[in-house]
């Protein structure tokens, strides 16, 4: 009786705080959330959150944190108790002081811990075909404002929720538009034939240490303001394994992640799994499928907080599916979806699976994460402070030095900007060198990005195939940027002064071939209609004719191939050209099939894509007719004729097989049939937005499991090569560099080898199996075809906006043969 009275009083009190009745999701959207065959529009989602803020201003604030690439609002909703909401600035200041033990003594920290609130940032739908979590965010926001249960009262009192209903607003509309177009057709529930983020598709959550996209920067801006104890990132996976994955993570865990955080992720994850099981949900997997290595996905865990990930099984977007028990996967990493095990205690029995099921699982997980943060509030705040204490106590190394004198000043500045955006403090020594002391709260972040990675030799069993890493194995910024940086174990002498590095600062005007910023200068001159000359020996540029040895260079007419089988590499190439100011034209199959290409273009680029996708595209019947087919033989013949009359064709990574097989570039891939298969990162029914998956509209990585034991494996590693400095492709570069390798081809050839692997010591950072297979082989081949050139890049020269040093290999290729 007394408990019931308390609940009634609480409900009455809460209702009295609202300026108006809280609108239900159904009243706003016109249908129940999670209804079959209905997806949401982003403007409707935004409008609903602003309605909540208007109805309950004491409990929710909605802010626009930025704009998406296409200009849509990127919003955050801050939700907590009225008492907490009145004091948000106070709690931000507490977080700031606990995050930096240099300004807060242990005695000062204790009253802050007693007063503080756990900050939980929940992020949804970064991969737009993983549609459920935006729906879940809508429903959960309503529950946060209206649910009077003791659990939600504890959540509101002890936590502050920062809810981001989508990290990819553009993708919400891209997928919804496509779903409606294909509804009630054979293609219902398929992925759209375009990237679901303007530039990077599925790679948008691989941008968390290079910060190239505005959505990334908006999310990081929130984190850098609030310093959350937990960032909970909500995803979906393929349909044929667990119904939901929750940490603990698989090995390896990146060695710079504090062990306190790893243990807390284990604690929160297993508690969430317990709550799901107690709620009657089956098919819950922990310690499976996903490792915790790359910082490109785990920003907060290098900044004092937990990164919680859940991956729910997908439907076909909003269309239900039926999965038989016997069709569930028997070999995802870490468990068998048809067998009971310690980390998969109640297998899902199979049956119908729909969008509403995903939402139900996610709502339980959301509540559980927040409730466990609430009941462990003081412990987690204290541990948050302890993680910072351990970071500022680091002495090995004592510091990293980035010398002032660098071959590529532009790349050096850009690397320092990137580190500074991640809250790394950078100082200047009396001699002008840049010094990054390790005695700072985010030294783990700096150390992880500056040092070389030593990924373990992680095989499924001795002598067996490799376990596929969740993402890549190397992220060494000095190697990617071509910057000299080294650690020191002794204190740095002399007074240090703090430096500031505004992100994306205006590049300097420079004409040196070795400075990446020069290309900003050159493209600006072209856009202004001004002439550009280049020294044919040094590669330096000039805005005036310098006489003998200088050649006038025109803005290249660039064609960038854009397949209906959307390629993230194509998107990253567009981003690079837009960022540096190159003019280019996206060309489709029809554009190339039209022929007479040399009259229109100087260079044709084929981004990373296999030959079958380029030549054949989607098969008839798998997509609407206008999106089926590839270049076909007419298109191949037109491109070959373009090269034969003097055109330049640039082929990235796996597109090199197309260019050698179809265009006649004389080079043989020595790794053909020798590459280990560790499972498909985006396989199964998922993989929309430019992943490597098939037709479905489900989520991301499909529980990669057993594969074939091949001889060679390079799952995102940095490898050493020697450049032929006589090639015009290498102007501005040193003789020895590192390049990005992701199961990339290597060649034997009688043509010019622009980049060659050494005989030994090939691996610079990451993981590599079978280096002997590529020893002394070509990584880049410049092949003559008729009067033109076909360049095979056994790498991605513009990899995820990260490989700054090798950008020059691409930019030089654009103008090498004018």
List key phrases describing it.
eight-stranded mixed β-sheet; globular; single chain; ten-stranded mixed β-sheet; alpha/beta; 32 strands; 818 residues; disordered N terminus; 23 helices
Description:
By secondary structure, the chain is α/β, with parallel strands linked by helices. The strands form seven sheets. Strands 21, 22, 23, 24, 26, 27, 29, 30, 31 and 32 form a ten-stranded mixed sheet that branches. An eight-stranded mixed sheet has the order 1-2-4-3-5-10-6-8, with helices on both faces. α6 packs antiparallel against α13 and α7 packs across α12. It is globular.
Strand composition percent: 15-25%
The residue ranges in which pLDDT falls below 50 over 5 or more consecutive positions are: 1-10, 679-707
Number of helices: 23
Give the overall shape, derived from the CA principal axes: globular
The percent range for helix content is 25-40%
Structural class: alpha/beta
Instruction: Provide the residue-averaged pLDDT.
Output: 94
Largest sheet: 10 strands, mixed
* Beta-strand segment tally: 32
Tell me the Rg in angstroms: 27 Å
Q: What distance separates the N and C termini?
A: 87 Å
């Amino acid at each position: 009786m007394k408990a019931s009275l308390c609940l009634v009083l609480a409900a009455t009190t809460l209702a009295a705080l609202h300026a108006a009745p809280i609108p239900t999701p159904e009243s706003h959207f016109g249908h129940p959330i999670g209804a079959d065959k209905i997806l949401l529009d982003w403007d409707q989602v935004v409008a609903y959150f602003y309605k909540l803020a208007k109805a309950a201003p004491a409990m929710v604030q909605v802010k626009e944190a930025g704009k998406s690439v296409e200009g849509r609002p990127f919003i955050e909703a801050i939700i907590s108790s009225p008492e907490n909401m009145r004091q948000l600035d106070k709690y931000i200041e507490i977080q700031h002081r606990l995050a930096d033990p240099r300004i807060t003594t242990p005695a000062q920290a204790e009253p802050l811990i007693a007063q503080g609130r756990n900050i939980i940032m929940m992020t949804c739908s970064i991969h737009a075909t993983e549609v459920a979590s935006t729906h879940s965010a809508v429903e959960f926001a309503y529950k946060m404002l209206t649910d009077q249960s003791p659990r939600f009262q504890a959540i509101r009192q002890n936590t502050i929720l920062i809810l981001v209903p989508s990290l990819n607003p553009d993708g919400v509309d891209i997928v919804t538009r496509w779903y409606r177009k294909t509804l009630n057709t054979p293609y219902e529930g398929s992925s759209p034939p375009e990237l679901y983020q303007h530039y990077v598709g599925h790679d948008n959550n691989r941008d968390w240490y290079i910060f190239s996209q505005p959505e990334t920067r908006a999310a990081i801006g929130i984190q850098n303001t609030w310093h959350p104890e937990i960032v909970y990132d909500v995803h979906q996976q393929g349909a044929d394994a667990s119904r939901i994955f929750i940490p603990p993570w698989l090995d390896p865990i990146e060695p710079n992640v504090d062990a306190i955080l790893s243990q807390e992720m284990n604690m929160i994850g297993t508690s969430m799994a317990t709550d799901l099981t107690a709620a009657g949900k089956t098919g819950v997997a922990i310690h499976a499928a996903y490792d915790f290595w790359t910082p490109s996905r785990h920003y907060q865990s290098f900044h004092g907080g937990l990164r919680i990930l859940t991956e729910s099984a997908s439907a076909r977007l909003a269309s239900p599916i039926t999965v038989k028990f016997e069709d569930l996967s028997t070999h995802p990493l870490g468990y068998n979806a048809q067998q009971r095990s310690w980390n998969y205690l109640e297998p899902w029995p199979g049956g119908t699976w729909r969008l509403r099921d995903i939402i139900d699982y996610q709502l339980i997980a959301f509540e559980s994460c927040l409730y466990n943060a609430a009941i462990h509030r003081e412990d987690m705040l204290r541990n948050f402070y302890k993680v910072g204490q351990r970071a500022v106590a680091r002495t090995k190394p004592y510091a990293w030095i980035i010398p002032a004198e660098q071959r590529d000043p532009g790349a050096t500045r850009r690397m320092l900007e990137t580190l500074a955006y991640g809250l790394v403090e950078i100082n200047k020594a009396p001699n002008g060198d840049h010094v990054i002391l390790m005695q700072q709260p985010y030294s783990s972040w700096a150390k992880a990005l500056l040092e070389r990675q030593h990924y373990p030799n992680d095989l499924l069993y001795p002598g067996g195939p490799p376990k596929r890493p969740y993402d890549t194995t190397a992220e060494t910024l000095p190697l990617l940027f071509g910057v000299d940086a080294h650690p020191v174990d002794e204190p740095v002498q002399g007074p240090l002064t703090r430096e500031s590095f505004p992100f994306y600062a205006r590049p300097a005007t420079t004409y040196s071939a070795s400075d990446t910023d020069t290309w900003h200068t050159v493209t600006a001159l072209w856009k202004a209609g001004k002439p550009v000359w280049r020294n044919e020996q040094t590669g330096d540029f000039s805005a005036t004719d310098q006489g003998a040895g200088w050649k006038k260079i025109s803005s290249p007419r660039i064609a960038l191939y854009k397949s209906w089988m959307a390629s993230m590499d194509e998107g990253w190439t567009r981003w690079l050209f837009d960022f540096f100011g190159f003019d280019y034209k996206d060309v489709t199959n029809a554009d190339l099939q039209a022929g007479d290409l040399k009259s229109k273009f100087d260079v044709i680029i084929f981004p990373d894509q296999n030959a079958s996708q380029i030549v054949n595209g989607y098969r008839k019947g798998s997509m609407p007719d206008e999106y089926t087919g590839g270049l076909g033989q007419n298109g191949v013949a037109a491109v070959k004729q373009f090269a034969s009359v003097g055109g330049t064709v640039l082929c990235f990574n796996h597109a090199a097989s197309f260019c050698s097989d179809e265009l006649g570039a004389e080079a043989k891939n020595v790794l053909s049939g020798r590459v280990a298969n560790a499972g498909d990162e985006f396989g199964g029914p998922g993989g929309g937005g430019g992943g490597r998956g098939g037709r479905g509209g489900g989520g991301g990585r499909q529980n990669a499991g057993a594969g074939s034991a091949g001889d060679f494996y390079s799952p995102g590693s940095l490898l050493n090569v020697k450049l032929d400095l006589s090639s015009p492709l290498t102007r501005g570069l040193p003789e020895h560099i590192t390049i990005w390798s992701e199961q990339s081809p290597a060649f034997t050839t009688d043509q010019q080898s622009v980049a060659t692997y050494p005989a030994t010591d090939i691996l610079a950072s990451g993981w590599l199996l079978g280096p002997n297979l590529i020893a002394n082989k070509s990584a880049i081949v410049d092949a003559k075809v008729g009067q033109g050139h076909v360049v095979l890049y056994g790498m991605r020269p513009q990899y995820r906006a990260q490989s700054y040093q090798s950008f020059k290999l691409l930019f030089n290729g654009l103008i090498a043969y004018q």
